[in-house]
Design goal:
By secondary structure, the protein is of the alpha/beta class. Helix content is 41%, strand content 17%. The chain contains 17 helices and 14 strands. It has an eight-stranded mixed beta sheet, with helices on both faces. Helix 14 links the parallel strand 13 and strand 14. Helix 10 crosses helix 11. The longest helix has 21 residues.
């Protein structure tokens, strides 16, 4: 029998806020899971007293403290340069955001038993090295050094991003994708230092476990992610539709970042259309005015509109669920990912999923059972898999059913709350022995 859980004070460090009445963590397709985890902790972990510190663009002081619904919030005012200073920094890289004084102040004010840091790539990740006397457990998100290896598609170079309409942003303001890659490089150097020194980590895939196994002192805990409530309510609701018109309807949820696979979508759509298949491919997270779509379209001579690609921008849960229920297959084309919530949400709804076999994806998509995998960037293989799946209603139904069952278990809130509590307790106990 498990002994009674002792009461503990837990401080979360997040780059985005989880206040229900502000933008930030809830404002994008794939985010919101930290806020969902917060709600789970509030309802299922009565022994936790929670504080959440996050970066904010507003505030009269460097740290603003407020309490709401049993949670203490610390809003840390961002110190990123603006205007001319931002332009100078983009050119020189001289300025470095550092929030160690604020983090130490918050730790002294709240006096947590454990600090939970979301992402080693976070701008608050210096807590790994700057905080002493308190265990810091890092919740692995992505790994920047791995993203850098695949940041641009194999046939894309810096020069491809320089078009007449992107010249000012990319070259003069240095605020485009070329600069973003340089920013990743800078932050990856810091990430490498934090990973080398971290003592405790939690994650959810074989891939992130393997990465942490190379860290000399780190102890790893498996903790799955809570999805947004709307997807629990829609669990298993997908049904294979009758396609009298023959049209294949596809859905992807990605971000406007080069390695997320927009080029794969565009090339695959062209293959399918050229071979005579009538498709409609909805892409959430990328807008019709996307400069990335413009760059890829110019490079590959592909018009999204001509080949049935609908760039619909950011979509809220209700819109995503509606699209999932009317589409035939969910496609995840990213060159690198850990455990994308977009896949998990599609599986929860019961959609058949086809995903690139990269990073931690094979942990959440078991090939032939809870989805189908293809080699990253292999548009020929992806196109063939789409056609085969779209014309096999029995396979689609079986994949969706198994995916929904697996997702229901993997994202069970009670199990996640229990795993999280265990990770906190073991981190505290392990730290006391150091």
């Amino acid at each position: 029998m498990r002994t009674a859980v002792r009461k503990m004070r837990v401080l979360w460090l997040s780059s985005t806020n989880t206040l229900s009445d502000e933008k930030g963590d809830r404002s994008y397709n794939g985010k919101g899971w930290i806020a969902s985890l917060q709600e789970t902790v509030l309802s299922r972990c009565p022994d936790i007293t929670l504080a959440v510190a996050f970066l904010s663009g507003s505030g009269d002081t460097s740290v603003t403290r407020l309490a709401r619904k049993g949670i203490t919030y610390y809003s840390i005012r961002k110190r990123a340069p603006e205007g001319v200073l931002k332009l100078l920094n983009n050119w020189t890289g001289f300025f470095t955001e550092n929030y160690d004084p604020e983090i130490r102040y918050i730790a002294e004010d709240f006096r947590p038993d454990v600090i939970h840091l979301f992402g080693c790539e976070s701008k608050l990740a210096s807590a790994v090295t700057s905080i002493s006397g308190i265990p810091v457990i890092v919740h692995i998100q992505g790994i920047l050094r791995e993203c850098l290896k695949r940041f641009f598609p194999p046939d894309i170079r810096d020069r491809d991003f320089i078009l007449p309409q992107t010249f000012i942003n990319e070259i003069v303001l240095m605020n485009g994708f070329i600069h973003l890659r340089k920013d990743y490089m800078k932050r990856a150097d810091a990430e490498r230092k934090y990973l080398h020194t971290l003592r405790f980590a939690m994650g959810r895939t074989d891939w992130d476990r393997q990465i942490i196994s190379a860290c000399p002192q780190a102890e790893y805990f498996h903790v799955d992610e809570v999805l947004r409530d709307e997807f629990y309510a829609a669990a298993g609701s997908w049904k294979a539709r009758k396609r009298e018109s023959g049209k294949i309807k596809l859905l992807s949820t990605i971000s406007e970042t080069p390695y997320k696979g927009l080029d794969v979508i565009m090339k695959s759509a062209r293959i399918l259309k050229t071979e005579g298949f009538d498709i409609e491919w909805y892409v959430a997270g990328v807008s019709a005015a996307s400069s990335l779509a413009e760059v890829f379209g110019r490079k590959y001579r592909i018009s999204c509109e001509r080949y049935g690609i609908r760039l619909i921008g950011v979509a809220d849960p209700a819109r995503l669920i509606s699209l999932m229920q009317e589409c035939d297959i969910f496609i995840h084309p990213s060159y690198i990912d850990n455990s994308p919530n977009s896949i998990c949400e599609a599986q929860m709804v019961g959609m058949p999923v086809i995903a690139a076999s990269t990073g931690g994806v094979p942990t959440i998509v078991s090939d032939g059972q809870t989805g189908l995998l293809f080699s990253p960037g292999d548009t020929g293989q992806l196109s063939e898999t789409i056609i085969r799946t779209a014309h096999n209603a029995g396979q689609s139904a079986a994949l969706g059913l198994q995916a929904a069952k697996k997702a229901a278990t993997r994202h069970d809130k009670a199990n996640i709350a229990s795993s999280l509590m265990a990770a906190y307790e073991k981190s505290i106990a392990g730290y006391s022995r150091i």
